[in-house]
Write the structure tokens for this entry.
Amino acid sequence: MRVIASSIRKGNVIEQDGKLYVVLTAENIHPGKGTPVSQIEMRRISDGVKISERYKTTDQVEKATIEERNFNYLYQDADGFHFMNNETYDQVQVPKEIVGSSAPYLQENMTVKLSMHDANPVAIQLPQRATLEVVETEPVTKGQTASSSYKPAVLSNGVRTAVPPHISAGTRIVVMTEDGSYVERAKD
């Protein structure tokens, strides 16, 4: 299926020169002068090599036929990450390279979207938000206003993030899985 380059998003799979690539980042750049372009960083699925391509936003790009299915995360071992299809109970193993920077946010029984091409997992999409516990942060300083700067914190998955001054260790917070940024205090 051919689509224009400006419609390509993170997680899409593109076919180029007979090889499949998963899109890591896609950015549309509109310079003051000249032609708008789409800067696309992608990883070749066969061997994991990262490449960066620049297309005119109107160029046609071949989007591979991908089947997206919901899977439940089970566990991680030396071979990779293991997921189960909720409908057929089939288990699939996903290599560490495909999960990439999303790995710390995976939680047991979390439902994720796996993109499959010829029954092989090629990309993973986590829920936008995850609830984690703050395990370490600086104590609250008296007189600090709520609108002041954020303070560093370490989450239960080992990721460092910035939280508002009123958050203390032991508090459960909601973070964005894309970049680990603070959203709100968990309502549980």
